[in-house]
Amino acid sequence: DEPQIMQRALKQAFEATGAAPKAVALLETEIWPGLLWACRNADVRAYIINGRMTQGSFVWYTRIRKSLRRLRPDKILASSQDDLERFSNIFDTEGTASRCVLMSNIKFDRLLPNLGAKHSKLAIDTLFKQVRLPIALLASVREEEEKDLQNVIKTLCIEIPEAAIIVVPRHMHRTEAWLGHLSAFANEAHACK
Questions:
Q1: Are 46 and 77 in contact (CB under 8 A)?
Q2: What pLDDT digit, counting tens, does each position of 87-113 carry?
Q3: Sign of the C-alpha dihedral, residues 78, 80, 84, 86?
């Protein structure tokens, strides 16, 4: 995240495409001071979307809050009220309007609208002959996302009962809880396996 390297990256993006970047979107807690500095110097807008910040990260970022405020993104869309408060505490300054707003977690936004569509075979079936299709891979699931994801799984079980649903928790200590959730789904709806 060296500022000069980030400046070169923006320049190379322009040289490779012939179009100068107008905006950079950083996901969750990707707060890169060097990139924010390069964006500010190149007049490229910077956004943090689906913003998340753990209490531990917040404590660390408070140590460099003064520097971060000079580099603050143009807009921060936080995925929960706690995240919004943490980002506001780090980036907002007295006397200026907050650049932090609340948004819904976009991790699952595109999953539900297409459930009714016909499912075509994917290239993966040539690699894994024994795998049922379609496959719904729900990866890097954090504990605070579990409740929303359980609703998604219930909908998948109803809409696509033949789907193989694979849940990969972000942290291994949540595996036992997911075994319980999935067993409950299997008992509720025999279509969900």
A1: no
A2: 999 998 777 778 888 887 776 554 444
A3: negative
